[in-house]
Each structure stands twice: as structure tokens, then as C-alpha cells.
Amino acid sequence: MKTVLTIAGSDPSGGAGVQADLKTFDALGCKGLSAITALTAQNNRRVYSTLVLPPSFLKKQVITLLEEFTVDAVKIGMTGSTANLNAIGWLIREKGLENVVLDTVLCSTGGYPLLDKKGVFAVKKLLPLVKIATPNIPEASALTGVDIRDTDGMEEAALALFSAGVPYVLIKGGHLEGAPVDILYDGKKFHRFKGKRIRGGREKFHGTGCKLSAAIAAGLARGLSVKKAVEDAKKYLNRILTGR
Description:
By secondary structure, the protein is α/β, with parallel strands linked by helices. The protein has helices at about 15-25, 55-65, 80-95, 120-125, 135-145, 150-165, 200-205, 210-220, 225-240, and strands at about 5-10, 30-35, 40, 45-50, 75, 100, 130-135, 170, 180-185, 190-195. The longest helix is centred in the last third of the chain and has 17 residues, at about 225-240.
């Protein structure tokens, strides 16, 4: 059984964060490990408060796990601070972590900020150290400065993020009107993943980004190509959202 490590915040509702990641890993046949970056007071509707853990303790969690386990892939979610992002960068470099999926979490679904403004620059510094980044449209805009209004804008932002050093970029198009389209750029070609708009309130979509990136990490851990890992992760997420 392959092992996947999530480095992310805790969601006591279980809908997102570390809890959702671990459920995803298990559902896809992988052993899950976790290192918590922050505690949150939240439910499926909104985040009320956060308590970010210090980078020294984050590093200690991961180093302790690596003493016993071989990690086949890593998913990075909410980091909570620039200091934690810097610590994660150190861990990737010094511990040789591979198949790293960066879910560029900047705020909650409800708009609660989960990273300080300086953290955006720290996220950019992390890009060359990961295998794939999975921003949604607001996150891609914040990281690149591109005003994304359509799929052309998504492609422009993907090119900018690739130029910043990340080998693969998946920009999630759920914030655009009409049928959602996710775009994967592999450095040579754009791959479009078209979906259908699924009805539901905020509670239904809470944690979808976490689950998708966790599923991609599980696929990479199992030896899938990035494109195949994204395809399978999208199918998995669709099953969850539609119950089919």
C-alpha cells in the first residue's frame, strides 16, 4: 500500500482539510499520514477562527513521520503562515519529498482569509519545489496578477505559473459562469476537463478543492501520470458530489 502525507489545516467538521484528505486517501487505497499546520473553528458553512501552529512544530511532525514511513506523495493544503510555507520548502528540499501536490489555499470557500498577504509571495517561492499546483481562479489571479474572465485567461495564468517553476498547473474553473472547465498545462499542451454544473449550497461544495488535490496525490503515489491522476481525481470527486 502506498503512503500519502497531507500537510494542511484541521477541519473539525470533517468536510475539508486534513480530515477530508485522510478520508480521500483511504477511499483510494492509500495509507494516509498527516501533519497539521493550523487548527480551525469551523463547520460546513463558515470558518470562525484559526490558530496557526509554529513552523518548528510542523517540521517536528513531518520529521518524526519520516523516521518510520516512506512517503510516496505529499498534498499541501492550508499552511496558515509564511513561516510554515518556508518550513515546508525546507522539508521538501532537505528530506527529498516527491510527488508534491500544492493546493494553493488562500481563503476558505466562504471568503475567510487563511493566509496573510506576505504568504502569496512565499507560495510563489514554493512553486519550483512541487510537481503540480491546483489553484482555483481567484487563487490563480492572486498569484499571477492575471484578470481571469474566461478560459483564455485561465491559460494565460497557467503559463505564468509554469514560468514561475511548477512543472504542471491545474487551474480549476468552477468560478466561471456556465459549465465548469478545468485546465491542465504540462509545459507543452493544455488539457481541458469539461464538467457539468452541479447544484447545491455551500455545504455541498465545502472541501471539494481539498478532496481533488488529495485524490491527485493518491494517484501520483500509485504511479499514475499527472494527467491520469487528474482524470481519476475528477471522476472520484464527481462521484462524491453526485452520489453516482
